[in-house]
Amino acid sequence: MEGQELIHLHALLFEVGECLEADESLPDDVFAHYKTQPTRPQDIHRDKDAHATAVKHLSRHCSQLVAESHQRTHTSTTETPTS
Predict the structure, then answer these.
(1) What is the pLDDT of residue 79?
(2) Residue 37 DSSP symbol
(3) Which of 9, 56, 78, 81 has the greatest number of CB atoms lying within 10 Å of its CB?
(4) pLDDT at 43 over 70
(5) 32 Cβ partners below 8 Å, 6+ apart?
(6) CA 40 – CA 14 distance, rounded (Å)
(7) Are 52 and 10 in contact (CB under 8 A)?
(8) Does the pLDDT of residue 73 top 80, yes or no?
(9) Total Cβ atoms within 10 A of residue 59
(10) pLDDT higher than 90, residue 65
(11) Hey, how many other C-beta atoms are within 10 angstroms of the C-beta on 76?
């Protein structure tokens, strides 16, 4: 992947993360590991490896949150009400 493509992907995942983080039902520290690394999408002077690391963190956290959300949604729709 080219450096410019990686920066674009980083920016996209950052925006997705911002949207997910706005969900008040999620823990406050859900993106804590990403926030400890120094590279942000606007840091175009950083090397490709720095953006790749950031993308790995963001993609891992975003996919985990989406999977957990899907699991909660799927579980709540398949549960049968008890009377």
Answers:
(1) 60
(2) S
(3) 9
(4) yes
(5) none
(6) 8
(7) no
(8) no
(9) 16
(10) no
(11) 8
Integer angstrom CA distances of residue 35 from 16, 29, 61, 64, 80: 14, 9, 12, 17, 40
The hierarchical CATH code for the domain 3-77 is: 1.20.1270.110
Q: What is the pTM of this model?
A: 0.77
Alpha helices in the chain (DSSP H): 3-21, 32-36, 48-78
Query: What is the enclosing helix (H) or strand (E) of 30?
Result: none
Rounded Cα gap, residues 74 and 63, in angstroms: 16
pLDDT of amino acid 76: 67
Domain boundaries, the chain: 3-77
Handedness of CA 57, 59, 60, 65 (dihedral sign): positive
- Maximum alpha-carbon separation in the chain: 61
- Confidence label for 77 from pLDDT (cuts 50, 70 and 90): low
The torsion angle over the Cα atoms of residues 13, 17, 19 and 24, rounded to 10 degrees, is 170
